[in-house]
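Q: Is it fine to ask for two folds in a single conversation?
A: Yes, each is treated on its own. Send the first.
Q: Here.
A: Result:
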Amino acid sequence: MANQVEHQQPAPKKPRLVFTDLQRRTLQAIFKETKRPSKEMQVTIARQLGLEPTTVGNFFMNARRRSMDKWKDEDPKNPGVDEGQLSPSLGISPRQATDVL
């Protein structure tokens, strides 16, 4: 009996975090201005938005990846962006984003 291995159930997965509209717009506005915020800035952003610093860090890491993927996907023959490809305005200026912080 001593040789039996106990199988523990893995901890249940945490549900996926969905950013609120304000959190998402603020993070996107900051990303437009600063692709790699310092750890201190990430902690400040996290505190102001009620998020974990690791969540904020992951947002910027994923945003950089998405922005790099988008850049790779662009047609090299047509570097311009059609109006149909533009994302809707965030409705928040970078200045407003820093005011939140």
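Q: Second one now.
A: Result:
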Amino acid sequence: MEDTYHLTDNKLDILTHPNRRDQIHILTVDPILGTDVRERIRADDRFKHCAVIRPDATSVRGALEQVEKMAKDTTTSRLIIFDVRRVTLPRLRRPFNAIVGYNRRDFNKLCYSICIGDGPVTLFQNGHSMDVFVSYLGSHRVDYYPAVFFFDPFLQYEPNELETRGIDEDFVIPDEVPRRLVRYLQKAENMKLDKIRRFFRATGKDDEIKDRRRRMLRRLYKRQLTEQFPDHKEEVKHLLSRMGVRLATEKMNLYPLFFEDWAYKLLHRAKKNASAGTNETKP
């Protein structure tokens, strides 16, 4: 006699994780960017009850191991931040795929994701068009379901600025300001990226200094992007705003402008969706 199995649908989806909390995972192997994201969040009173988790290893290999180990733990967070720059993504692809798999059912409902990255490799080889971002953003949307993609000009290096290495080789992530931005920072005494990021986030400074440096960074971005994309002044204007720019079917923002606002908005929306039991997807 064959065994008979009675399957009961208890409406519990084992691929969803409703017991998430006010917690943010920052997934990067770059200690400079990881510190910048964490410190911006910690300095904002809206996140005072929010836990922030990120790799603390100083080597790429060590940080990569930590990202791999924390993959399942991301199912307890309401916000997941992916560093998707081209230079480190090949090493992070496997743990990122696992993390997306664990959270896919909950993205844009019980949790949200933010991508921070550079632009396409052809950005400097395609005249003065922003159209090259469209397919690039589309691929990240398919892979990581981001509610927001933040383009970070300080992560965008020209190909000849990067040292080519094998995927299994140890390497050091570039820590110098990209060459095209140096002339906009001529008053800076040090072109190390960690110092430049610390200057602009102005942690521990009063609000007046923070606002002044925020405006300085915005002016720097506006000048550089307007010169790089002279035929897209309206798009650059939108890119500098809180809502970002729409390019065909894709949207893009500029890191770190309004980053904390978006992080809080998404964290709050995930919590609200959990309380309401809703399938809301809009960020």
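Q: Anything structural to flag on that second result?
A: Two points. The longest strand covers residues 21-27. The chain has one domain: 21-175+232-276.
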